[in-house]
Amino acid sequence: MATRFTVKGLRASIEGKEILKGIDIDIRGGEIHAIMGPNGTGKSTLASALMGHPKYEVTEGEVLLDGENLLEMEVDERARAGLFLAMQYPSEITGVTNADFLRSAINARRGEGNEISLIKFIRQLEAKMKELEMNPEFAHRYLNEGFSGGEKKRNEILQMMMLEPKIVILDEVDSGLDIDALKIVASGVNSMRSEDRGFLIITHYQRLLNYIKPDFVHVMMQGRIVKSGGPELAERLEAEGYDWIKEELGIVDETVGQA
Amino acid sequence: MSTQLNAPVSRENIEALSQGRGEPGWLTDIRKEAAALAGTLEWPRPEKMRIDRWKLTAFGVDRHPELAGDLSQLPEEIRASLPQDAANLVVQRNSGAAYRNLAEEWKAKGVIFTDLETAVREHGDLVKKHLFSVVKADEDKLTALHAALWNGGVFVYVPKNVEVEVPLQAVLYLDDAEAAFAPHVLIVADANSRVSYVDRVLASGAGRSAVAVHHAVVEVVAGPGALVRFASIHHLPESVTDLSIRRATLANDARIEWIIGDLNNGNTLSVTKSDLKGNGSTSDSKLITIGTQSQNMSITTHAVHYGLSSESEMETRAVMRDSATAIINGVTKIEKGATKANGHQTERVLMLSPKARGDANPILLIDEDDVKADHAASVGRVNEEQLYYLMSRGIDREVAERLIIRGFLEPIVSEVPIEAVREELERMIEGKLNA
Ligand SMILES: Nc1ncnc2c1ncn2[C@@H]1O[C@H](COP(=O)(O)OP(=O)(O)OP(=O)(O)O)[C@@H](O)[C@H]1O
Ligand SMILES: [Mg+2]
């Protein structure tokens, strides 16, 4: 069955404050969707709510991945169902090496009795790290600890490549990347494009979208998607900013939850 | 018949015991004097923990084992914890040495590594010079009792400029429920020498259900420029009380590295101290502990700076489960005149149960102006953000929590110098986390 990811009327709050005010997105396998929008408009909140971050309370709506209701699942179950979120601010975890962590994650997916062999795992890991031009020593460093901003982003992409999810959400994976790293990360993402994998890419900049061509671009303001279009929408935003959209829609303050 | 700890240990008993072992007069005198002191001195009073209310009566009776020619003569159960090559190893079983070995290579260089009772006979002058020079018999009831009653033990001597490249290992274990178990470890590292010593304190067989007190003192004398790395893992059962005092005295430019795993299941008093006497001397202590069931622990690391530009690092990490209590003290003391001294300490406690108690007490006592000293202490639960991050990769909550807890201890576990010991430590940690 072709991958299908559907978000319908999603509303979510944090500490009683509503941030997402009804989000609809429909992603099919093979498609790349981009979400753009000014700071504080709810983009990361959307990503976190979809992944199931415990701080966000979903109050309404539906999220289906291949017909399964993600909202009824724990965070780890959502991941095993095929959802992946490259986070804007990945956690640092002392004492857990990158390699041990990744192997646990892969094995969690494969299930007991079907664990990946160490040799096979190492071979895969080395190959993907090479593709991302990561120093092999990063496999043995503690997870994200002391990684630079760019190294953390690359490490998120490494995880995506190792875990082969169905739906990938990238939250500002381009922030903090130099231009070479941006190209490497983009080519990592592009190498993962396939008919049964969908992408939702949150970004502020057209430059990422020059490397990863989106099929759809959505603009988020006030916790809603206020405009959708094709790649040309991102180009216009890059050239003209957001004011024209605000004018068009009569929006004065585009942020959400700044009560 | 077990010796009553709260009652004074009788001088006559002690004298008979010492003479029965054929000990020299000077040692018999130390023991007798200490026995008298034990009757008058008080138990140590660590912060917020009344150890005098612990069951401190089961001193046990003298049970000296046969000395084994090779390890196959020891019970199978303990052999799993012993190194395969049986080299550079001292084993204490109950009240005395059961095995000792030092490779010829090191003997030829003048290194001594044997049980302390043997060292008293064979290297009397050397032992006499240093025994109870670091930890004094008259400090409190505990040190006095120990001075009167110690048995077996370990002696390490490394001559000037000798670098012992292999770790020296000791396994000290109890497998007789009645036995007195009171090892004394004395390490003397002469100028510019280097040595790593790794021991484990365990119970096996009948020792697992013994109602006993293990009291132990470690003394380290590090000469000018000497480097001593001391790693010790204690894993005694619930019914055994562990009272362990470790102390090093450091000459100019000497260095001690303590790596301590307090993984007992019973009540534990653990005090690890460095006296930084020499200029430029340095001390690094790393300690982990896991509190389970209803055990009480008082865990102290302590650095006292006397020397100019002396430096100390202390890091303690504790995981607390069930209704266990741990009072974790870190004491950095800088004496007047210890200019440019630098002391840094961290205590971190990970709480896994609302009924557990983990207090971190950083204490800085500074009597000199021109110094640096700081501390960091934290008590917290498993971090929700970290848990979320791991789970977002498909790892279930339980496994994710376990990864975070193991990771919390890992920076210290990874310092243990022998791989097999490190692996055993990991198994003990797993055992305590699963219990
Ligand atoms: N944990 C939180 N506690 C309180 N408020 C929060 C929390 N998380 C998000 N918010 C609020 O929700 C609103 C949306 O935040 P969100 O992080 O989703 O914005 P964003 O669109 O991703 O912004 P940026 O482009 O800066 O990353 C902001 O006003 C933010 O302060
Ligand atoms: Mg964001």
UniProtKB/TrEMBL annotation, chain A:
List each copy of the ABC transporter domain by range.
Answer: 5-247
Domain of life of the organism encoding this protein: Bacteria
Pfam family for this entry, one: ABC_tran
Keyword presence, Manganese = no
Q: Which UniProt keywords apply?
A: ATP-binding, Nucleotide-binding
Indicate yes or no for the key word ATP-binding.
yes
A molecular function GO annotation = ATP binding
NCBIfam families annotated for this entry? sufC
Q: What family is this?
A: Belongs to the ABC transporter superfamily. Ycf16 family.
Q: What is this protein called?
A: FeS assembly ATPase SufC
Question: What is the species of this protein?
Answer: Thermobacillus composti (strain DSM 18247 / JCM 13945 / KWC4)
Q: What is the lineage of its organism?
A: Bacteria, Bacillati, Bacillota, Bacilli, Bacillales
Automatic annotation (TrEMBL), chain B:
Q: Where is the SUF system FeS cluster assembly SufBD N-terminal domain?
A: 101-169
Q: Which InterPro entries match?
A: Fe-S_cluster_assembly_SufBD (IPR055346), SUF_FeS_clus_asmbl_SufBD_core (IPR000825), SUF_FeS_clus_asmbl_SufBD_sf (IPR037284), SUF_FeS_clus_asmbl_SufD (IPR011542), SufBD_N (IPR045595)
Q: Which residues form the SUF system FeS cluster assembly SufBD core domain?
A: 175-408
In this chain, the stretch annotated as Disordered covers 1-22
Q: Which NCBIfam families match?
A: sufD
Spell out the family assignment given in the record's similarity comment. Answer: Belongs to the iron-sulfur cluster assembly SufBD family.
Q: What is this protein called?
A: FeS assembly protein SufD
Q: Which organism is it from?
A: Thermobacillus xylanilyticus
